[in-house]
Design goal:
By secondary structure, the protein is of the alpha/beta class. It has five helices and seven strands; from the N terminus they run E-H-E-E-H-E-H-H-H-E-E-E. About 40% of the residues lie in helices and about 15% in strands.
């Protein structure tokens, strides 16, 4: 295997363990830090880890995701210009950032997914009605767009007491 270029975050477990695995396999691995200068040598295979976001505000999530999407689109363009190959292609990552669209694709491929409570869209009363109708009293609420568990929250409801946590 040729050299690996890891676009990631120095010192994170993901980056450290990936670099160790590459070293054990005898594959050169160069870390390209998010926000750092673009390496002069863009040959080999690029592995993209998600960036670290400096905000935990739900209000700022949309801006962080938008920036990530623009960076991924730029990376796809880099491949066209210099022949870079991808371990995980930016187009695939972009598809994953839209959780609703990703879930639809998984269902089309007959891959089991958790049942969505569709259409709540920020309306707490509607969410509670759907939960009561289905007798589901614990859910994960996730923003439609984002990476991993960014913005996800566990929500529990006790319909008899009205308690929420």
């Amino acid at each position: 295997m040729s050299r690996i270029l890891l676009l990631g975050n120095p010192g994170t477990k993901r980056a450290v363990y990936f670099q160790k695995a590459a070293a054990q396999m005898g594959v050169p691995c160069h870390l390209w830090a998010w926000g750092g200068p673009q390496p002069a040598d863009l040959t080999g295979i690029l592995k993209i880890d998600p960036p670290l976001w400096d905000s935990c505000s739900l209000g700022g999530l949309s801006g962080c995701v938008g920036q990530y999407e623009r960076e991924l689109e730029g990376l796809a363009g880099l491949a066209d210009r210099c022949g870079l190959r991808f371990f995980n292609h930016p187009a695939s990552i972009l598809e994953l950032l839209d959780k609703k669209r990703c879930k639809e694709k998984l269902m089309q491929a007959q891959i089991p997914v958790t049942e969505p409570l569709a259409g709540a869209g920020g309306d707490v009363e509607r969410l509670l009605c759907q939960m009561e109708e289905r007798r589901i009293f614990q859910v994960f609420v996730k923003p439609r767009y984002g990476s991993g568990a960014a913005g996800a929250a566990a929500f529990r409801w006790q319909p008899k007491s009205g308690g929420m946590a």
